[in-house]
Amino acid sequence: MMTFQQLVLASHNAGKLKELQAMLGDTVQLRSIGEFSSVEPEETGLSFVENAILKARNAARISGLPALADDSGLAVDFLGGAPGIYSARYADGKGDAANNAKLLEALKDVPSEERGAQFVCVLALVRHADDPLPILCEGLWHGRILTQASGEHGFGYDPLFWVPERNVSSAELAPADKNLISHRARAMSLLRQRLGLA
Ligand SMILES: O=P(O)(O)OP(=O)(O)OP(=O)(O)OC[C@H]1O[C@@H](n2cnc3c(O)ncnc32)[C@H](O)[C@@H]1O
Ligand SMILES: [Mg+2]
């Protein structure tokens, strides 16, 4: 069993930090990479896995701590899986509101049954920057893209993601509820098992 008292989270996204720390509980303290550097690595990979590993190695190198990275995004069926790994950059770095507006526009005349989508989360954990055996865990969350934004919780595309098992948008879920069923929750549950925390 691997034990970590502290991990650096290779993310500058406050929403992820909050959700991941809540899922991990107090056995492991997550420190933000923002404490060590404000420079974000370029996400040059072509897959969630590659980008997660790249971010984890970068954070381990900078901090000297074991590092956890989360590469995630939204894959929309009608768009052939886009925006996918480009979810954060979909509207050219103009932020969540612009990303959501662009997605609504792209699906403007698409009927409800063709609006299927999944949130994807890949977690990568490296013990050190050159770790040859990163731990990789993936989680998917199936839903649909709404025709207008709804809800105030969460971040990113949450207001547009309809959750069939609850019949609400993911931004209408209480944070604790989202953390039980989301793509990130599924990936984290696998990671906890791998670390012997489950
Ligand atoms: O790379 P880091 O620094 O971790 O932060 P980021 O926000 O750039 O994160 P990603 O590169 O992994 O891009 C993820 C994108 O997918 C969106 N996303 C991921 N998980 C989400 C969730 O639980 N709810 C809503 N949107 C989510 C998020 O808003 C981003 O636009
Ligand atoms: Mg990113």
From TrEMBL:
On assembly, the entry states: Homodimer.
The catalytic site is made up of D71
| Keyword line | Hydrolase, Magnesium, Metal-binding, Nucleotide metabolism, Nucleotide-binding
Query: In which organism is this protein found?
Result: Pseudomonas fontis
Q: What is this protein called?
A: dITP/XTP pyrophosphatase
Q: Which NCBIfam families match?
A: RdgB/HAM1 family non-canonical purine NTP pyrophosphatase
Required co-factor(s) are: Mg(2+)
Which positions bind Mg(2+)? E42, D71
Q: Its catalytic activity?
A: dITP + H2O = dIMP + diphosphate + H(+); XTP + H2O = XMP + diphosphate + H(+); ITP + H2O = IMP + diphosphate + H(+)
Q: Which CDD domains match?
A: HAM1 (cd00515)
Residues bound to substrate:
S11, H12, N13, A14, G15, K16, S72, F155, G156, Y157, D158, K178, H183, R184
Enzyme Commission number(s) of this protein: 3.6.1.66
Record family assignment: Belongs to the HAM1 NTPase family.
Keyword Metal-binding in record: yes
Q: How is the cofactor bound?
A: Binds 1 Mg(2+) ion per subunit.
